Predict the structure.
Amino acid sequence: MRNIIYVLILIAIGVAAWWTLTEIEKNIVAEQEKLSIERTANIVEDVRQLAQFTTACFYQESVVRQTKQAEWSNGITGDALRAILGKNNTATTDELVLITRGSVRAGFNMAQITDDNIKVLSDTIIIKLPQPEVFDVIINPSDYDVFIENGTWTHEQLAEIVTNAQNQMRSEAIANGIYKQARESGEAKLQQLFHILGFNTVIVE
């Protein structure tokens, strides 16, 4: 009888010890999960502060041409010339050709990053980037030369031509792979950044 009591006591002690260890393990796991969530939230906030994360820049030169009907050709003289020379003759047409130089800047809008885009697992971080995009195309007033200028052109008409040049540069940069370069450069920069912050494994998707 006494042996049975001892056995029951040992079993009770074992069960109590097991339950205690289980609760301690649960608390440790819960605390680790809490710290992981807090750490992830802090990282997300820091990443969002990068805002426009520039990872590629193309420097390009483009030639843009614009034509319009000459102002003096709107009257009888212009009608007569078109009747004699034909509608497609350039005698009644103003022409402006610019050689423009500018830069196309691309990268990632990190303000779009959410908690779902970053996962932290111990010393591993997984970050899913948004799609790369072109931030801007910059052509300064000193970055273009007038190659041909016939007729009179207003400031508004000149601004329209510069806008056309910007659109052309944007299209050329995309065709030449600026998005691919932006992604490759962005992945390399983020891996370097998070390695410095102490992560052994950095996965960029």
About this structure: The chain is about 45% helix and 30% strand. The helical segments are 2-48, 76-85, 155-175, 178-196. The chain has a mean pLDDT of 76.
